[in-house]
Design goal:
The complex is a heterodimer. Chain A is of the alpha+beta class. Chain A has helices at 4-13, 29-32, 87-96, 99-104, 114-123, 132-144, 147-171, 175-196, 207-214, 221-228, 238-255; strands at residues 23-27, 41-47, 57-60, 67-75, 78-86, 127-130. Chain A starts with a helix and ends with a helix. Chain B has three helices and six strands. In chain B, the strands form two sheets. Chain B has a three-stranded antiparallel β-sheet. A three-stranded antiparallel β-sheet of chain B has the order 2-3-4. In chain B, a hairpin with a 2-residue loop joins β3 (26-31) and β4. The radius of gyration of chain B is 13 Å and the shape is globular. The chains are: A alpha+beta, B alpha+beta.
Chain lengths: 258, 93
């Protein structure tokens, strides 16, 4: 992140920075140095009191208060998106991913909205602009929580369900449906694998980069990329590719320590 | 009809409908409405059921891993895989 001071100045100039924020973070691709010319710059502002401004839109979240105010805007040829979390909402979110919660219910989709999961994932790789001690404490709390186990469990359940569906489709003679479903299964299996190694995120566009960061011993990049790009796929024998990839998904699922 | 008599040359594979999970050092299997936790040796054997290894080969590797006679290991493998096949966790190739 090369223009850190400018982000804070930008927020101040736009009257989007409250008087005493707990923390301000750059998150997402800009924080990881993976951004490009058309990337959004994603910012998170943490406050003690809910942010209020007539320009803000709201994202529903199962928290108290039950909304995450957000605003997207363009300045200087780039699009910015700012979300406002309260410190209390972060407490609530961490309570949802406690080990106690995990033992009771391992279905992360039942507990967290997408905006919540994204927040925790991005917190781990953020660049703090303000409130570095708060960020360090929160990151440690995420590492101590069952968040990783929740996400792996969710991704593996998806991978298994898709793999089983692919076989069912194949047996029913729907090879095209089986191929597409197998691709989904593989995506979930690899996401579970990368999450297990601490690389969170479900966007396919970042999967190769995340893969390179981790280089998981269970799957080489060349084999991963071969499946991702379907380089071994034979249109005359789709069942061979489906069977190979479904078996690979199962093998990966068995190798991942929750 | 699948041959129900298992021998050293039998080759089995894990059924794709079986879900495998590792959690806190243990291996769990789940299928249909069933779930079991495998012992360390059962997990070792199950991990070698890949549609290529024969029962004899799995037995030899079990014997080496746990330092037990090969004959005894092969017998244990046959006993375990017979049970797992009966409940549709593994199947013949």
């Amino acid at each position: 992140v090369t223009d850190v001071p400018n982000y804070l100045t930008l927020l101040k100039n736009e009257r989007l920075l409250p008087s005493a924020p707990v923390a301000v973070l750059v998150v997402g691709s800009a924080a990881r140095g993976w951004d490009h010319g058309t990337s959004d710059v994603d910012l998170v502002v943490v406050t003690t009191e809910p942010m209020s401004d007539p320009r803000l839109l709201i994202v529903d979240a199962p928290l108290d208060p039950p909304v995450i105010p957000a605003l997207g805007f363009h300045r200087g040829g780039r699009r910015y998106e700012v979300k406002y979390w309260t410190d209390s909402q972060v407490d609530q979110l961490l309570a949802k991913v406690s080990w106690e919660s995990f033992e009771g219910d391992r279905k992360v989709g039942n507990r967290m909205a997408e905006v919540e999961q994204l927040f925790l994932e991005r917190l781990l790789t953020c660049v703090p602009l303000l409130g570095e001690p708060w960020v360090s404490d929160r990151i440690q709390q995420v590492h101590d929580s069952a968040f990783r186990a929740f996400v792996i469990t969710f991704e593996l359940a998806k991978a298994d369900a898709k793999a089983e569906a692919a076989i069912g489709l194949l047996e029913a003679g729907d090879a095209h449906g089986a191929v597409l479903t197998t691709r989904e299964a593989f995506g979930h299996a690899v996401d579970a694998l990368l999450t297990g190694a601490g690389e969170f995120g479900a966007l396919a566009k970042w999967r190769p980069r995340r893969f390179r960061v981790v280089n998981p011993p269970e799957l080489g990049f060349d084999e991963y990329w071969s499946v991702e790009t379907m380089s071994e796929y034979d249109p005359e024998r789709p069942e061979l590719w489906v069977s190979h990839v479904v078996t690979l998904c199962k093998k990966l699922a068995a190798a991942i320590e929750i | 009809v699948e041959d129900l008599v298992m021998s050293g040359i039998s080759v089995l594979r894990q059924r794709l409908a079986v879900r495998v999970r590792q959690f806190r050092g243990s291996v769990y299997l789940a299928w249909e409405d069933n779930a079991i936790e495998l012992s360390d040796t059962a997990a070792f054997v199950f991990g070698l059921v890949d549609g290529r290894n024969t029962v004899d080969e799995i037995g030899r590797r079990l014997a080496k891993e746990y330092d037990i006679p090969v004959g005894e290991a092969v017998g244990d493998v046959i006993e375990l895989l017979t049970e797992l096949r009966a409940v549709r966790v593994v199947e013949g190739v």
